[in-house]
Amino acid sequence: MSIGHVYLVGAGPGDPELLTLKAVRLMAEADLIVHDGLVDPRILALSEAPRISVAKQRSRHTLAQHAINLLLVEEALAGNKVIRLKGGDPFIFGRGGEEAEACRAAGVPVEVVPGVSAALGCAAEAMLPLTHRELSSAVSFVAGQCKGLTDQDWSGLAGKGRTLVIYMGVATGPDIAEKLIADGVSPDMPVAVLENGTRPGARALRSLLADLGGMLERERVQSPAIIVVGEVVDRSDAADCLARFAQQAEKLA
């Protein structure tokens, strides 16, 4: 039996129309699809191949990463064309690098098909330019659930002329705001939260860095969502939640 093939395919932030043509073709040819929990059901419906969910949530995983690696290898060694369908892009906080390494170590052919990362897709929907000739010439991507958050130096990641995009930061939003302010970012720096970007029920919310934790709480923001910090936020279509909160407070008074 000939060895199969593993394709690490980016499914984008949600909207099926943001899939690449190559991703759609490979899904139609697949023998098996191994997918994340964040992959939109509309995308999964594009293929009739058998599916295995390896959904991961905070502190609760369907399969541990080493088990996912083993699953991909075993299915490919059995001769199958395996599509590892991942939200966003496989190589941006998608652990695609680990899965590619496991396949190569086992002698399994592996290919990466890039996808539209959440930062790009969600920002585009909110008309939020991550770079702007007058406001920002640099963009940084960070993970908000990383270990040792308080020990890291974020002083060069956000501020005047720079944009910071934080993935997986809803649960640690207050800590992130405190960390950035402690590292020198102005409390008045504009911040946006883009929730469920390109999906039904998407929201784009705007406030100030000092209010980030409060906004997440009062707006009951849920994952998936990204946080954008920088002056470019003021050029977006995001709703001004700080103003709305003030209006609500006046009515209650």
Automatic annotation (TrEMBL):
<dbReference type="InterPro" id="IPR014776">
    <property type="entry name" value="4pyrrole_Mease_sub2"/>
</dbReference>
<feature type="domain" description="Tetrapyrrole methylase">
    <location>
        <begin position="5"/>
        <end position="212"/>
    </location>
</feature>
<dbReference type="InterPro" id="IPR014777">
    <property type="entry name" value="4pyrrole_Mease_sub1"/>
</dbReference>
<dbReference type="InterPro" id="IPR050161">
    <property type="entry name" value="Siro_Cobalamin_biosynth"/>
</dbReference>
<keyword id="KW-0489">Methyltransferase</keyword>
<comment type="pathway">
    <text>Porphyrin-containing compound metabolism; siroheme biosynthesis; precorrin-2 from uroporphyrinogen III: step 1/1.</text>
</comment>
<dbReference type="GO" id="GO:0004851">
    <property type="term" value="F:uroporphyrin-III C-methyltransferase activity"/>
</dbReference>
<dbReference type="InterPro" id="IPR035996">
    <property type="entry name" value="4pyrrol_Methylase_sf"/>
</dbReference>
<dbReference type="InterPro" id="IPR003043">
    <property type="entry name" value="Uropor_MeTrfase_CS"/>
</dbReference>
<comment type="similarity">
    <text>Belongs to the precorrin methyltransferase family.</text>
</comment>
<protein>
    <recommendedName>
        <fullName>uroporphyrinogen-III C-methyltransferase</fullName>
        <ecNumber>2.1.1.107</ecNumber>
    </recommendedName>
</protein>
<keyword id="KW-0949">S-adenosyl-L-methionine</keyword>
<dbReference type="Pfam" id="PF00590">
    <property type="entry name" value="TP_methylase"/>
</dbReference>
<keyword id="KW-0627">Porphyrin biosynthesis</keyword>
<keyword id="KW-0808">Transferase</keyword>
<dbReference type="InterPro" id="IPR006366">
    <property type="entry name" value="CobA/CysG_C"/>
</dbReference>
<dbReference type="InterPro" id="IPR000878">
    <property type="entry name" value="4pyrrol_Mease"/>
</dbReference>
<dbReference type="GO" id="GO:0032259">
    <property type="term" value="P:methylation"/>
</dbReference>
